């Protein structure tokens, strides 16, 4: 799993216990997973369909730098399934895991639409395809 996105835990992200508020973390995860799905499917019309059990295994405190790792685990006809791990950047200690997140590719009519993808595409490969002569 690649960890590309990093967040700095600030005072506005804390709960009354002084640790990272789960709602803030879930918002970050949903946003980053949606961006990942958009890049993989090549379509900005992607919506969250399902998020499995969320397992918080440790806390994060103000000043911590956390990083989110997301990877595709399955490509459906109109969907993409992802998995996510959040960990402390410095200690590498896991904070949270989400085993399954499903995003659906939509057409211009707002209905599920086939995306035609079957495997992970890396940004470096996408740029190569864009620069191929016609």
Automatic annotation (TrEMBL):
This is Acyl-CoA thioesterase. GO terms for cellular component: cytosol. The lineage of its organism: Bacteria, Pseudomonadati, Pseudomonadota, Gammaproteobacteria, Pseudomonadales. Pfam families: 4HBT (PF03061). Belongs to the acyl coenzyme A hydrolase family. The keyword Hydrolase applies. It comes from the Bacteria. Gene3D superfamilies: Hotdog Thioesterase (3.10.129.10). GO terms for molecular function: long-chain fatty acyl-CoA hydrolase activity. InterPro entries: Cytosol_ACT (IPR040170), HOTDOG_ACOT (IPR033120), HotDog_dom_sf (IPR029069), Thioestr_dom (IPR006683). Keywords: Hydrolase. Residues 1-109 form the HotDog ACOT-type domain. One of its GO terms (biological process) is acyl-CoA metabolic process.
